Amino acid sequence: xxxxxxxxxxxxxxxxxxxxxxVLSPLSLEIAxxxxxxxxxxxxxxxxxxxxxxxxxxLRNINDFSSALKSIISEIKSLQDMEFKMYNxxxxxxxxxxNEQYMNNVTKNLDTSLKLVNFEDTSLELYNMIDAEVSDAxxxxxxxxxxxxxxxxxxxxxxxxxLQVNESRQSISSATSSKQLKQLFKSSYEGRTSIATTTxxxxxxxxxxxxxxxxxxxxxxxxxxxxxxxxSYINANLNLILILPKEGSSPRDxxxxxxQNKLQSISKLMALKQLEIKIxxxxxxxxxxxxxxxxxxxxxxxxxxxxxxxSGLSTNPKGLCLESIIFNSEISLNGNFKEKTVSQESSxxxxxxxxxxxxxxxxxxxxxxxxxxxxxxxxxxxCNIKEQRKVILFAxxxxxxxxxx
Length: 405
What we know:
Blueprint: H1 2-15, E1 22-24, H2 26-37, H3 42-52, H4 62-77, E2 82-93, H5 100-109, E3 112-117, H6 124-137, E4 155-165, H7 169-173, E5 175-176, H8 179-186, H9 198-204, E6 209-220, E7 227-232, E8 238-244, H10 251-255, H11 260-269, E9 271-280, E10 283-289, H12 291-297, E11 324-332, H13 342-348, H14 354-359, E12 369-372, E13 377-385, E14 389-398
Parallel strand pairs: 2-3, 4-11, 9-12
Antiparallel strand pairs: 1-14, 2-4, 5-6, 6-7, 6-9, 7-8, 8-13, 10-11, 13-14
Keywords: Glycoprotein, Protease inhibitor, Serine protease inhibitor
Pfam family, one: Serpin
GO molecular function, one term: serine-type endopeptidase inhibitor activity
C-alpha cells in the first residue's frame, strides 16, 4: 500500500492546477491497477508493478494480494456511521477470449465487473448500454462516460468511489456562513476567475463553514509554515487530516514534498491541542480519464498495441491494450467529529484544578488556537483497520469553492 500512496501523490502533482480541486482514492487506484496487473505478463507486468506496487508482488502471489485487499475493503465497508462504495468495471472487445483464471480472481477478490462488448459497433446502442450499466451501479454518479473516450476499440476501465459519512443536525447547527471567511478564500481566485464583483462572488459561492471546538491533534511546521490538524469522526475508525499551507503559499509547495514516509513523520509529530477549527461545508467531485497521466508517469506498455502483453487476461491477446481509465470520486469533508469543548473540559477538571485556579486568581489557563481553512488546503481521509494500520481512502486538494456544491 505504501508504494501505491506515493503513486497517488505523484498523480496529484501532475493533476494539480491552481484553480481546480483534486479528489483521488489511493485505495481505488490500487484496486483498479491490480485488476489490470493481474492480466499482464513479462515487461508489461514489470513496468506497471515497479511504478505502482511494491517489489514483493509477483505473478505467483498476485492472487494472495488481491485476496488481502478484498479483506481490507470488506472491513471498511462494514463500518457503521459511514457508507463507502467502490465500483470497478472493465469492458473488453468481444474479439478477445477471457482467461478463466483471470476472471475468477478479479471478480471474486477485486469485485470487478468484466464484460465483453462490440466496440466496432458504431451505433449509439453500445454507448447507451455502458452508460446505463455504470449509471445504475453508481446511482447516477457517472453518466455518459463514453462521450469522453470516443476512440475506445479494445479495453475501457471505469472506477467510481464514494464516501458518505452520517451527519447529525447538531453538527450542522454549529455552521457559520461568515462573509469574512468566504472573502478570505476568494483571494485564491483573484485574476483567475470570470466572477468580477464581490456581489457576484458571494451569490455564486453559497458556502458555510462548520466550527469545531475541542482537543484535536495538531502540528505546525515552523520552518515551512504549514499547519496540520486531524479530526476523528464519531466512528473511531475514520479520520480527516487537513494540511493548511502558510498564508501566501500554494498547496503545490507542500504536495511536491509529500510521500508516504513524510506523512508518517507528520503524524508522529502531532499532539493534542485545544483548537477552534473552521472548515468549509463542501462536497467534492472529480471525473477524469487518467490514461494520459499514467503514461506520463511511466506506465506505457499496457497502452501500446504492439508492446502490451495481456496474456494473463486473454487467450488471444495480440493487439489488446488498455485505452482509457475513467475515475470518478465523490466525498463530503464534513461529518460528526469527536469534540471536547473548552467548557466541558473545564467542568470535568474543576475539582482537580481548584488549587491551581486559586494561584492564578481564577483565570482560565486554557488557550484556544483558531485554525481556519479559509484558503486552499490539502486533505486526507484515513481509516484505521486491524493490525493497527491506517488506509488512505481519499486524498486531494481544495482550491476552488465554486466547484464544490
